[in-house]
DNA sequence: ACCTGTGAATAGTTTCACAGCT
DNA sequence: AGCTGTGAAACTATTCACAGGT
């Protein structure tokens, strides 16, 4: 059986993938593991190890071809697949995400917004269609939405998450401070909570001020 | 010399800290490591190990006192310290963060916003004072700002980060897609980029569809 | 000369298991 | 009976070092 790839490793590969896109856009095509590492703040070993987890990408002897490596990653990780996204909770953060046009270029379309506040749904100005939350199940299925952004207040989070999961969502980015409890196989969640991030930065700063700590490295969250 | 705490561990401790706040708010005071773990999705061993990294918190034999543990963490990680925050880039995400009132309760005050667009600075409606970016150095020092949120377009990120760092900022939450390159000792950075998160979720979903993968776990980023 | 891919070594983190306290 | 704190074991990830390719 194939060895399971680590999440850290997978995350680095995703960054490499996006970085390669940028490089290709700039017309550069040959790149070495140390240059890649340089840009992403990783050791060249680490870059090579991560890439070789997925198998031999082709260019053995002298750096990678950016486009070949890009396509290799796209195929192995299915990154070329276009996915539909919805946003639940159209407060300030939710509507900012809803209005952001930059996802398209990377293969994600925000195709629906949800909120419980009917007045808000009436008055909001956005090119994306918006619906009341009780329609989550229906719309997620009809529009084949696979990813969701949750930006509702903490006490509504679990409820919204449950609905999304029941509707068949496969990935959630959770901006709310509440932690989502769930044991659904094949569902992936990322928690991005600003207060938590501030708290962690504070703790790092405080600890650094007494003892030495490493820095510039992000966390294995939960 | 004191053993260095891991970033993952530190992050869990910060979550525990915030969770304890909620518990105390609800009037509950006694809690066991397994209950804590239950809520945060961790094993009870893990919770105890993390806590005991910081030393003996007091309540040995029968669960923790929520308030004692809270104060213990606050002291060890300096989490009671109030910190000032600024937001650079007042587009949709930046202004959403600027307008969010929820930070105060956790000890963070957003005290300044910055943008290069002078017209925007004139027209924006916010209780927080806003300034042109060339004033970053001055304002950060005068207002004793320690944390910054960067929400500018990718190509401006490095420049803004450099200014903030020169002004003496100690922690950055970076919402932009660009990775900040810097080797300043004692500076901590968290990258929260939605496209990256979507990409990672996609990759997890794709891999899960063939082989089995673990889930619901966040990443050691970079 | 410079590069990748990879086994082996090192370092780090998590889980186990249990002594000791309440 | 049920809990914590912790050394030791198991596991995981990263770094090294080098054979082999271009």
Describe this structure in words.
- The structure is a homodimer of 222-residue chains.
- Chain A has 222 residues and is an alpha/beta fold.
- In chain A, 45% of the residues lie in helices and 16% in strands.
- Chain A has nine helices and eight strands.
- In chain A, the strands form two sheets. The first copy, chain A, has a six-stranded parallel sheet with strand order 5-4-3-6-7-8, sandwiched between helices. In chain A, strands 1-2 form a two-stranded antiparallel ribbon.
- In chain A, α8 links the parallel β6 and β7.
- In chain A, α1 crosses α4 and α7 crosses α8.
- Chain A is globular, with a radius of gyration of 20 Å.
- Chain A starts with 6 loop residues before the first helix and ends in a 12-residue tail after the last helix.
- About 3% of the residues of chain A have low confidence.
- The interface between A and B is large, with 85 and 85 residues.
- The first copy, chain A, binds a DNA duplex (22 and 22 nucleotides) through α3.
Q: How large a portion of the residues of chain A is in β-strands, by DSSP E?
A: 15-25%
Largest interface: A-B, 85 and 85 residues
In the sheet with the most strands of chain A, the strands line up as 5-4-3-6-7-8
Largest sheet of chain A: 6 strands, parallel
A few lines on this structure:
Two copies of one chain form a homodimer. With 222 residues, chain A is of the alpha/beta class.
